Amino acid sequence: MFNKINIDDNVQIILGKRNKLIHQGILLPLGDANYIEQAIEDRKNVSDLLRKYMLTLLNYQGSYYLSRDRIGPSGLIELR
Fold first, then answer.
1. Which end of the chain has the least Cβ crowding within 10 Å, N or C?
2. pLDDT value at position 9?
3. Distance, CA of 14 to CA of 27 (rounded, Å)
4. How many of the other CB atoms lie within 10 Å of CB of 48?
5. Domain that includes residue 30, residue range
6. DSSP letter string over the chain?
7. What is the per-residue pLDDT across 16-55, written as a single tens digit (0 to 9) for each?
8. Distance, CA of 16 to CA of 13 (rounded, Å)
9. CA atoms within 13 A on the CB side of 29
């Protein structure tokens, strides 16, 4: 799916994290202090990948906002 539109931004790693979020959720396991922060970071990575995928399918070209952006857009889809 991602290869067809030339997106190879560590897709397998990000999809693995997405699967972990789906099966374990953001709040589990409650005993691990770093788990929640990592789960939120993983969610942002998945969100950014899906955003780029949708914009590429729509033939969007230019800047776009990522999950971490606060001041200006840091994502960029260039002409191919």
1. C
2. 66
3. 19
4. 20
5. 3-77
6. --GGGT--SSHHHHHHHHHHHHHH-SS-STT-TTHHHHHHHHHHHHHHHHHHHHHHHTT--EEE--TT-SSS--EEE---
7. 777 776 777 655 555 666 777 777 887 888 888 888 888 8
8. 5
9. 2
Positive or negative, the CA dihedral 51, 61, 5, 68 is negative
| The two three-digit tokens of residue 69, written as one number | 């952006």
Give which of 58, 57, 27, 56 is closest to 75, Cα–Cα: 56
d(C-alpha 23, C-alpha 48), whole Å: 20
Distances (CA, A) of 43 to 31, 50, 54, 60, 78: 20, 11, 16, 23, 25
Long-range own/partner contacts, residues 57-61 (CB < 8 A, 24 or more apart): 57/5
